[in-house]
Amino acid sequence: MDTKAIIERFRGAVIQIATPYSTGTGFYLADFDLIVTNEHVVRDNSQVVIDGQSFEKRLVRVRFFDPRYDLAFLEAPVQHTMPGVELADAADLVEGERVLAVGHPFGLKYTATQGIISNTAHQQNQINYIQHDAALNPGNSGGPLIDENGEVIGVNTFVIRDGNNIGFSLPVGYLRQALQEFTKHDGATGVRCHSCENLVFDDTAENGYCPHCGTKIKLPSEVEPYEPAGVKKTIEDLLAELQYNVELSRKGPNNWEVQKGSAKINISYHEKTGLIVSDAFLCRLPKTDIKPIYEYLLRQNYQVKGLTFSVKGQDIILSLLIYDRYLNMDTGKTLFAHMFSQADHYDDILVNEYGASWKADS
């Protein structure tokens, strides 16, 4: 199958995943009505935020943890139109075959990298992994590794640090086995015991212990809800006060995203420096006659109290910077409310009156 066709085929089936601890990628299997990802992406979460081409951000339950094979299954969102993707035959892997890795690295929306298989059975912890050189980056974890026929041959799992694009994917055979075992208990949440490797479900666990070997386990349904502390709690309390869905706003460690009208605002907390940065990428500069818009932005910089306009490349950005030692509920609520309303106000002016273009979500 043509590479471009494969990329387009998977665009609707590959989704972004965010938790308070990490970000990653998942892909939808229509035959099982489940989203597949890595266990380390969703670890210590009973529900996660997902975002896809055919639906808005929403929370879904984690259905299955598999720490042995670093797999996890999520429930699919209701009323979606995600296309299903096919799993390849586990016996068809060939060294030298071209492969494609797709996912959402560094928070980017859907990227694809090509490479070749260099080893079909790299053994680590008694598990055989596919070794390949399709670039994998943070955020790619849990995404599919795809062969030339457009079928999933593995789940992208880890890389060798400073290894010059040496990546490893769990072969599809392990995934098939886990799916077959899990779907025998339809509707229940489960976990693979890390000691005896048997699957344990809500109705078979014995007071938090594996019924087969007695090892302590934790089912997805037993994970305690995330409770932020310190500055992170203050930020989330502020978002709640401003009537935003806090759980849906989480976009990874120390990172939140909210939508105010037509403006999308990102909030990040840099613990080392104590700086809280709120950025709204409003729009892009017009291709011609940019002098009027520059003059307007310079004039407005004297009027937007506590905020700053800047230009990075072609992007026009409105920013709010606060040091954590100055953040409290009273001042924070005023500052964030002002930031959000001004972002929604200015993007319309810049597009409608000064010829700027809307920033594509890509």
Classify the beta-strand content into a percent band.
35-45%
CA-CA gap between termini: 24 Å
Q: What number is the mean pLDDT?
A: 93
- The coarse silhouette is globular
Give the number of helices.
7
Main sheet strand line-up: 1-2-3-6-5-4
Helix proportion: 10-25%
Largest sheet: 6 strands, antiparallel, barrel
- What Rg do the Cα atoms give? 23 Å
Task: Give the SSE string.
Answer: HEEEHEEEEEEEEEHEEHHEEEHEEHE
Q: Briefly note the structural class of the backbone.
A: alpha+beta
Q: Uncertain segments of ≥5 residues (pLDDT<50)? A: none
Number of extended strands: 20
Protein architecture, described:
α4 (230-241) packs across α7. With 362 residues, the protein is an alpha+beta fold. It has helices at residues 3-11, 39-42, 172-182, 230-241, 246-249, 291-300, 329-354, and strands spanning 14-18, 23-29, 34-37, 47-52, 55-66, 71-75, 98-103, 111-124, 127-132, 144-146, 152-159, 167-171, 190-192, 199-201, 255-260, 263-270, 275-284, 307-312, 315-323, 357-358. The strands form three sheets. It has a six-stranded antiparallel barrel. Strands 7-8-9-12-11-10 form a six-stranded antiparallel β-barrel. It is globular and about 65 Å long.
Main attributes of the structure:
20 strands; six-stranded antiparallel β-barrel; alpha+beta; 7 helices; 362 residues
